[in-house]
Amino acid sequence: MSQTEAVEPVSPGAPGASTDGGPRQRSVRVVMVGLLIAMLLAMLDNMIVGTAMPTIVGELGGLDHLSWVVTAYTLATAASTPIWGKLGDMYGRKGIFLTSIVMFLIGSAASGMAQSMDQLIAFRAFQGLGAGGLMVGVMAIIGEMIPPRERGKYQGLIAGVMAIAMIGGPLVGGSITDNWGWRWSFYINLPIGVVALAMVTIVLHLPKKRSQGRIDYWGASLLTVAITSLVLLTTWGGTQYAWGSVQIIGLLVLGLVTLAAFIYAETRAPEPIMPLRIFRNANFSLISAIGFLVGFTMFGAMTFLPLYQQTVQGASATNSGLLLLPMLLAMMAVSMVAGRVTTSTGRYKIFPIVGGALITVGLVLLSMMDVHTTRLTSGIYMAVLGAGMGFIMQITMLIAQNSVEMRDIGVGSSSATLFRTIGGSFGVSLFGALFSHKVQHGMESSAAGAAATKGGAQLDPATIAKFPPDVKNAYFHAVASGTHTVFLWGAVISVLGFLAAWFIVETPLRGGPASKQEAPVEEEPLLADAI
């Protein structure tokens, strides 16, 4: 028996559950709204703030510290994610989740009131600590509230929130900054967050949990150092410091040493922050690797698609979110269909396989884009990639949660999220280095071009417009060549995820006919019946 009591939630078909669309089903929908709002907060924030950054630097100064506004938030989010997941497993998800929302809102308010760049960086780090609990809290609560067999019905909603954040973030951020000022790019979180806080507080009731175990402070510290080292390595490598520099090599050594020490510490801890037993399940280990690879390729694509379209195809930077519309709509539609099929049949292994194949095909198609590719053609290519992401994005979390015991649903969710985040960090960094090298190499044939791109390959559209025609044409070809290289390597890496998906074992989803419902222990009603 674990030191942390695990309780199987009420699910459709269990005693006391309602499946006829009654009060309990309506309460599920109300809770989902609150959870999706919290998820939107976490995803929307970086999109909005990114648009406001030039204005922030103009008022607060500190251009040399600009990258730390984003890095501090990213580091805090990544490092705190597994800790939030474990705390939820130990002390109950509702209270821990509400705490993360409050921290995020305090960080948002403080960031809006910052009077210097140093203050803004510190407040963004605090905000990132809260953000780490938002995503994992949403996923873990859904995992406890809705059994895997029924969860597919909600996949389209989650994919829809992702699409709204990616499309609406830059538009909302630009509008807020232009009309209300940059501080409102942080203040806008407050009313939205209060709504989520109120809905979750009033409607959501989860089982009581008691933990006699002690928090694994040593493991948490080692994991935080390891994650921080790896994220900084991928953030600074090839940009602030050369890949072979003492700083980057030092970060790599520090990350590997602390990671090894963390693994050893987890074998000794009575209540480990990331129990190694979850990796004994082959499905969980496979889906973690697939999540890493999907993050690697997905974030690379999301970074360089707008760059290609704004530079080569001359699209407006203001509407950068709309450029991804074909990919995001395809992702949302396919995710919804895959979720419904999973719920009705209980079958899911085919989706990571098909998704891996479509992601590979989509990246190969995107690698074929050149200076003559039309927006319609690139939109079709993006739709293929989006369909692949739709098959695999939410299914990976479902498989991860179904592969762990209910007592580990939090660390299972946070680990799956962490692997995807780290994969994305590596993808953006390594693809960025490939892209910059290819663009710089492509411009070396022109003396004027080499001078124009000296010190950095990525230029803003206004600067590019001032280039002489021959230099502009050379730059467009160089960018097209760079994106070709990025997407081609992305396709090679995605093949690994496709191959790994074949080894997933399709075990029955909890909550289906083949699963046994355990009697609840000291359980409150899962959801308020008053709605």
UniProtKB/TrEMBL annotation:
<feature type="transmembrane region" description="Helical">
    <location>
        <begin position="320"/>
        <end position="338"/>
    </location>
</feature>
<dbReference type="InterPro" id="IPR011701">
    <property type="entry name" value="MFS"/>
</dbReference>
<feature type="compositionally biased region" description="Acidic residues">
    <location>
        <begin position="520"/>
        <end position="531"/>
    </location>
</feature>
<keyword id="KW-0812">Transmembrane</keyword>
<feature type="domain" description="Major facilitator superfamily (MFS) profile">
    <location>
        <begin position="31"/>
        <end position="509"/>
    </location>
</feature>
<feature type="transmembrane region" description="Helical">
    <location>
        <begin position="350"/>
        <end position="368"/>
    </location>
</feature>
<dbReference type="InterPro" id="IPR020846">
    <property type="entry name" value="MFS_dom"/>
</dbReference>
<dbReference type="GO" id="GO:0005886">
    <property type="term" value="C:plasma membrane"/>
</dbReference>
<feature type="transmembrane region" description="Helical">
    <location>
        <begin position="30"/>
        <end position="53"/>
    </location>
</feature>
<dbReference type="InterPro" id="IPR036259">
    <property type="entry name" value="MFS_trans_sf"/>
</dbReference>
<comment type="similarity">
    <text>Belongs to the major facilitator superfamily. TCR/Tet family.</text>
</comment>
<feature type="transmembrane region" description="Helical">
    <location>
        <begin position="286"/>
        <end position="308"/>
    </location>
</feature>
<keyword id="KW-0472">Membrane</keyword>
<protein>
    <submittedName>
        <fullName>Exporter</fullName>
    </submittedName>
</protein>
<dbReference type="InterPro" id="IPR005829">
    <property type="entry name" value="Sugar_transporter_CS"/>
</dbReference>
<feature type="transmembrane region" description="Helical">
    <location>
        <begin position="217"/>
        <end position="236"/>
    </location>
</feature>
<feature type="transmembrane region" description="Helical">
    <location>
        <begin position="96"/>
        <end position="115"/>
    </location>
</feature>
<feature type="transmembrane region" description="Helical">
    <location>
        <begin position="65"/>
        <end position="84"/>
    </location>
</feature>
<feature type="transmembrane region" description="Helical">
    <location>
        <begin position="154"/>
        <end position="172"/>
    </location>
</feature>
<dbReference type="GO" id="GO:0022857">
    <property type="term" value="F:transmembrane transporter activity"/>
</dbReference>
<keyword id="KW-1133">Transmembrane helix</keyword>
<dbReference type="InterPro" id="IPR004638">
    <property type="entry name" value="EmrB-like"/>
</dbReference>
<feature type="region of interest" description="Disordered">
    <location>
        <begin position="511"/>
        <end position="531"/>
    </location>
</feature>
<dbReference type="Pfam" id="PF07690">
    <property type="entry name" value="MFS_1"/>
</dbReference>
<feature type="transmembrane region" description="Helical">
    <location>
        <begin position="121"/>
        <end position="142"/>
    </location>
</feature>
<feature type="transmembrane region" description="Helical">
    <location>
        <begin position="486"/>
        <end position="505"/>
    </location>
</feature>
<keyword id="KW-1003">Cell membrane</keyword>
<feature type="transmembrane region" description="Helical">
    <location>
        <begin position="184"/>
        <end position="205"/>
    </location>
</feature>
<feature type="region of interest" description="Disordered">
    <location>
        <begin position="1"/>
        <end position="23"/>
    </location>
</feature>
<feature type="transmembrane region" description="Helical">
    <location>
        <begin position="242"/>
        <end position="265"/>
    </location>
</feature>
<feature type="transmembrane region" description="Helical">
    <location>
        <begin position="380"/>
        <end position="400"/>
    </location>
</feature>
<keyword id="KW-0813">Transport</keyword>
